[in-house]
């Protein structure tokens, strides 16, 4: 009996030592070796690796800033851990790691701390700018939220919901984090699938190239086929394949289904994009033409049928900005280069495997070779000959 008691004591002490060591061990840096190579003609490059370049202009210009590298690493960590936890029920082990601040719980807490600090620094900089009268011109979204909560301007509903300065800052922090989270990897993921689908459908690729080449100034507003092709790519491979809402009050859906307050109402944009009753017999085909009207202009459908950007009054606020961003990047790339797929194989008969985190990514990334387009070759040749004549 005494030996068994001793064994239990030794086992407990061993577990305590292991937990203590893990808790106080320095977390390894996740921001070192963060390569973002420039594309090189003829070399194989990974498209998704440059996802950080679609974040915002300040990050692009200051990519060497360690703060931005740490921010991206923190978002990757937080999204990965949070996403996996949504797929599994809480366990005693998870609760213990949270209590002791070890393992993934510690990594998540540290990542959230980095994200929150960055968001608060943006808010503080905006507050200083407003106090000093430098925040003039067209207001950005953060300025609009701050104005809506300003008691001197009437306050309104938002001011009543967040009556203290601390509560207001927490709300603004959540707004900033939500926008960063919504746009961080989604555009890069959508463009990766878009370029793969173009390579797998040469007819569509030619039409996009023709449309892009007709606009040498890069004005994407009139590129309806490009807009349709990107939309069709997100129908088949939505950046966020499933999403949902929480009911704030009891409600009844149009079909009579009762939804109670606090219930989750989840949906799958991936599944809805592959339903024959919504998209017809060619629902598995990449057909940008389904988005074009008789005049050749883009013809959107109801958000409840295509919920990639949600629907109704809670639809994504960054939808138009996301389209402008993706069309600008796609047209700039296609105007200058031809993309030869290295991996995965460009065939609709063998679609790539995907990996699931917060966004839907091509497993292993999109490996491509860049070749100068014929139009770009002609432009360079004309420019060179003109210089020789002068």
Automatic annotation (TrEMBL):
Chain sites annotated for binding heme: 316
Keywords carried by this UniProt record: Heme, Iron, Membrane, Metal-binding, Monooxygenase, Oxidoreductase, Transmembrane, Transmembrane helix
Cited Gene3D superfamilies: Cytochrome P450
Pfam family, one: p450
UniProt-recorded Gene Ontology molecular function terms: heme binding; iron ion binding; monooxygenase activity; oxidoreductase activity, acting on paired donors, with incorporation or reduction of molecular oxygen
Oxidoreductase in keyword set: yes
Cofactor(s) needed for function: heme
Keyword Metal-binding: yes
GO BP terms: lipid metabolic process
Protein family per UniProt: Belongs to the cytochrome P450 family.
Listed name of the protein: Cytochrome P450 94A1
Source organism of the structure: Aegilops tauschii (Tausch's goatgrass)
The organism's taxonomic lineage, starting at the top: Eukaryota, Viridiplantae, Streptophyta, Embryophyta, Tracheophyta
């Amino acid at each position: 009996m005494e030996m068994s008691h001793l064994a239990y004591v030794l086992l407990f002490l061993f577990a305590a030592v292991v937990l203590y060591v893990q808790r106080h061990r320095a977390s390894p840096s996740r921001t070192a070796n963060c390569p973002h190579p420039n594309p090189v003609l003829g070399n194989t490059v990974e498209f998704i690796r440059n996802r950080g370049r679609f974040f915002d202009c300040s990050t692009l210009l200051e990519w060497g800033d360690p703060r931005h590298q740490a921010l991206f690493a923190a978002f990757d960590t937080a999204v990965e851990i949070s996403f996996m936890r949504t797929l599994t029920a809480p366990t005693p082990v998870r609760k213990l790691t949270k209590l002791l601040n070890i393992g993934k719980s510690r990594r998540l807490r540290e990542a959230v701390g980095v994200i929150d600090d960055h968001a608060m620094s943006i808010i503080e900089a905006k507050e200083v700018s407003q106090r000093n009268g430098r925040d003039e011109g067209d207001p950005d979204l953060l300025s609009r939220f701050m104005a809506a909560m300003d008691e001197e301007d009437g306050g309104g509903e938002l001011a009543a919901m967040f009556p203290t300065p601390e509560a207001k800052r927490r709300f603004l922090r959540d707004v900033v984090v939500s926008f960063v989270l919504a746009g961080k990897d989604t555009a890069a993921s959508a463009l990766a699938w878009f370029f793969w689908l173009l390579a797998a459908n040469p007819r569509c690729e030619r039409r996009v190239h023709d449309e892009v080449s007709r606009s040498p100034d890069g004005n994407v507003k009139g590129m309806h086929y490009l807009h349709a092709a990107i939309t069709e790519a997100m129908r088949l491979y939505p950046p966020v394949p499933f999403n949902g809402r929480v009911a704030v009050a009891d409600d009844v859906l149009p079909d009579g289904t009762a939804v109670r307050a606090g219930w989750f109402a989840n949906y799958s944009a991936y599944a809805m994009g592959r339903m024959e009753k919504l998209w017809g017999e060619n629902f598995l085909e990449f057909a940008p033409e389904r988005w074009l009207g008789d005049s050749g202009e883009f013809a959107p459908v109801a958000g409840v049928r295509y919920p990639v950007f949600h629907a109704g009054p809670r639809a994504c606020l960054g939808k138009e900005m996301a389209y402008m961003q993706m069309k600008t990047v796609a047209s700039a790339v296609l105007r200058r280069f031809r993309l030869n797929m290295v991996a995965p194989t460009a065939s609709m008969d063998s679609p790539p495997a995907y990996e699931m985190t917060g966004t839907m990514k091509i497993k292993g990334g999109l490996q491509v070779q860049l070749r100068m387009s014929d139009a770009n070759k002609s432009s360079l040749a004309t420019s060179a000959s003109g210089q020789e004549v002068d």
